[in-house]
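Q: May I have one protein plus its fold?
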Amino acid sequence: MTNITEMIAKNIKQRRKELHITQNDLAFALGYSTKAISKWESGKGAPPTVILPALAAVLHMNVDDLLSMNVEGKFFLGIDGGGTKTEFALADSEGNIIRNIVLGTSNPSDIGIDASLNVIKEGISEVCANIPKSNISIFAGLAGGTTEGVREQITEFLSRFGFASVKNGSDAMNAVSASLGSGDGITVIMGTGSVTFAQVNGKSHRVGGYGYLLGDAGSGFSLGREAILAALCFEDGSGEETSLYESVRKRCGTERVLDSLGEFYRGGKRTIAQYAPLVLNAYVEDDRVAKKILFADLEKVAQTIRGAAKYLPSGKAPIRVELCGGLCTKDDIIAGALREILAKENYSVNLCKNSLIIGALRLAGMPDKEND
């Protein structure tokens, strides 16, 4: 939630400048060092409670104002709703995130539209408390948020709050915005599912991502399924020896992997996706089967990258490829393997440095900070 230290820091600095006094002037008036004032204004430390009345008096304000948020100006609310959690973040006009919370999933395809809207309402109420909605522009990027009829329902629901502007779409839009901003390039999203986007002149083109029934290469489901299958095949004698067998069996918690077959089917794609990290762990340990699984899967991802590249103008500079999603955080393994596959081609493969909530805030209209 709200970072009180940062809020006080902003209020001190803003009010001091309005009064045209220097940090030295303020330090002298309070009997503190200029270094202490600088520390307070940077948010690296807060003024002691006992000094707050004197500080407020020097700045010609009351203590309540010193501790409260200045609601003048514009604010931006971003919502990033994935398969397992929903993040809400509120930023000011300078691109500073001043409040954020995380709630459970808001995917209407999984929990229904009514439950989804309740999650959104709870998050908005908490993160926007005491700020006029008319000062806030919002973008909500939600998994399952663009299916037939759902997008319109979410738009109508958000419009009831009285926000300055309302936009909503999919969580994939957050990922593209977080990774590429307004620039051209390719975003590959690899979570429970996977999809690739090319962005050219602000317009996105989708490649792949047709769901687990039609093949989500590079997804947690795809790698998890192959890990389980490799273990089952070794167990029944039709597959190669692999360290995946023991790691899968231990995760199952059963004497045989086959004993968990019913659980795999009952749990579905999310249960199976939980086995994906076992492939990455076995790959690091130089397991031959894990390497075959990983590279076969990522070769299909490379094909989507090549397909996405057709939307981009050709040139001498490498095409920027940004990787997002939970599968891409394992010690750069995915990025390293993709770089190896695409080594002779003109691509620059990177892990996305921004969290996906930054993409939602950008789409809400938040300006990037100068040092971003």
